[in-house]
Amino acid sequence: CSLIAQKYDKDTCKDWKEEIDTLLVFAGLFSAVATAFIIDSYKWLLNTDSNATSLPTEVQKRINVYWFSSLLLALSSASTGMLCKQWLREYIRHAGRSTEDALCVRQMRLFGLSEWKVGGIISTIPLLLQVALILFFIGLLELLWRLDKTVAIPFTIIATFVVLFLLFTTLAPAMQYFYVVWRRSLAPLPPQCPYRSPQAWIIVSLFNQMFIWLTSIRPNIFERHSSFPRLDLQGPELAKPCSSWEKYDLYWVQ
Is the sign of the CA dihedral 160, 166, 169, 175 positive or negative? Predict the structure, then answer.
């Protein structure tokens, strides 16, 4: 049992570490790009003749706020990633112990890992990077629209498609969850949306909590409106909160 538990922990931590390493690489590259822009933009705040630009003062300040905030979030995500790797290293470290002691220590650490939300902290790293990316885009868009609309238009189109793609992949799992729960008579169920991410899980959790609230407060709230299909919120499976993608899968196949 001890060896099986150790193998499970090592595999889990390996997956987390690989994800963190990928995010750290992106954070490093993004920070380098953002820094290259900030090297010039911060000079606008010095108010000297040599740093004068055609941009209004308020625009200069806003752009710097966007870019400095973006860089700070990217560096914060990198710092968080390094901390998480240190926690995971200590979690899987095993000194010479008897089998019984090893299992007790492992269970103690696993409980602490869960209760102190280490997995949730790791999930915030890509969220920080995406917010940093959006802030950088906003600052760049404002700069381009102030300088040259010919350059700003194609960049705006591309940035819009990127943001819409991020929004769609974030909302799609929750929209499918809402549709499936709304139409419980669907048979067979549609293919489950694979767009899983920390931000998508937040939206799915909000939808799940909304249905739980409807179940406990007013389960027949939609029955008064004939234009709405019947929403059966009285099943016990709908009153169970989903705390992870794995439990969401179990709900899906029930």
Answer: negative
User: Judging by beta carbons within 10 Å of its beta carbon (0-12, 13-18, 19+), is residue 48 exposed, middle or buried?
Assistant: exposed
Angle between the 118-147 and 57-92 helix axes, to the nearest 10 degrees? Answer: 160
Please state, in angstroms and as integers, the Cα–Cα distance from residue 61 to each residue in 33, 58, 145, 151, 173, following that order: 19, 5, 15, 22, 38
Q: Does residue 164 form part of some domain?
A: no
Two structure tokens written together for 159: 């940035």
Question: Taking the CA atoms of the chain, what radius of gyration do you get in angstroms?
Answer: 24
| Residues 136 and 195 both lie in one domain | no
d(CA 193, CA 169): 9
CA dihedral 168, 171, 174, 177 (to 10 degrees): -20
- Tell me the pLDDT tens digit for each residue of 70-106: 999 999 999 999 999 999 999 988 766 677 777 888 8
Over the chain, what is the mean pLDDT? Answer: 82
99-115 and 118-147 helices cross at what angle (nearest 10)? 40
Q: Decide if 218 is inside a domain.
A: yes
